[in-house]
Amino acid sequence: MSIYLLRRLNLFLATTMLLFIVVFWVSYQFPGERSYILTGISQPSPEQMVDIEQTYALDSSAPVQFLAYTKARLSGDFGLSVTSQQPVFDEMMSLIPASLELGMMAIIVALALGLPLGVIAAQTRNKLLQNTILALTLGGYSIPVFWLGITLSLWFGLELNLVPVNGRFNLLYPVEPVTGFLLIDTLLSDAPYRIAAFYDALAHLVLPTLTLALLPFTMVVRITRAAMVTVMEQNYIKAAEARGLSALQITLRHSLPNAMLPVLRTFGLMLGTIGTYAIITEVIFSWPGIGAWLVSAIFQRDYPAIQGGVLVTSMFIIFSTITVEVIHHKVNPSSRKELYGIH
């Protein structure tokens, strides 16, 4: 396992280095002064200019500049946002909890709904029900996320007026940030309206969560069904049936835990796609996360924010993908042996 972890660490470092090379090269393509692109300071003082030249080695060769650029970014120095003149790193840290809260809620909904439907589709003998579930998931997988988000907003937000269609919470409920996760912060608050604030934050989560959860939901249903069909043919399942275990016991104790392994692996492979869907979802619902912030920075040509947003979101996806793969191989050692020849 230690050899495998070392290989995964090397992969993470190599991929991260390639990411920094690409972002560094792209930063040269931005129009304007190099100091402005790197720091967001449009008119630096002589003292600031000397500091910028020393920090980013602007008078040196490209490889030396790249090393200086990487050192500055890894130390948390992403410059100032052109639009707000606030440190880019501080802005990103304040926005990341909102994106994580939305993403985790979407994954929870996808698993809570997708796993039971996948099991039903695999075990039911009703062909009509099975085909209906598969057809619905195929249709859901094909629906563009921007169309779904707008449609849900029109139906449930504007026409029926059931839930809010934008933002993260009502400004009538000021909540002191503690963890950055609004659902938790509202419960931790000692304000008399904390329960009302919790339900308001939950209501704001409904539409963006459903929009973002559609893709992983359809994936969970189809992968769970395929895995369950394969698992149910294994000898240990037939042995459990011979011992007189009920169908529910076999499913919960034997079939479903083993069927979860392909679901976990597929989640890791699709994190990049889910991250892209999350950015679109944040823009549609004006969700104050790092995805909507990054899109706004692109429109406003906020070059330091663009670089910081791309680096942080990409590194998070790379790290999460490798982490999911490590977890998968930890709970399923046989796949590690097959892939890497480890005995």
From TrEMBL:
Organism per entry: Paraferrimonas sedimenticola
Primary localisation category: membrane
Protein name: Antimicrobial peptide ABC transporter permease SapB
Keyword list, A-Z: Cell membrane, Membrane, Transmembrane, Transmembrane helix, Transport
Membrane topology, from the record: Multi-pass membrane protein
GO molecular function: dipeptide transmembrane transporter activity
UniProt KW Cell membrane keyword: yes
UniProt cross-references to CDD domains, sorted A to Z: TM_PBP2 (cd06261)
SUPFAM superfamilies documented for this protein: MetI-like
Annotated compartments: Cell membrane
Family, similarity comment: Belongs to the binding-protein-dependent transport system permease family. OppBC subfamily.
The ABC transmembrane type-1 domain, residue ranges: 96-328
Transmembrane region(s): 9-28, 102-121, 133-156, 201-221, 263-285, 305-327
GO cellular component terms, semicolon-separated: plasma membrane
Superkingdom per UniProt: Bacteria
Cross-referenced InterPro entries: MetI-like (IPR000515), MetI-like_sf (IPR035906)
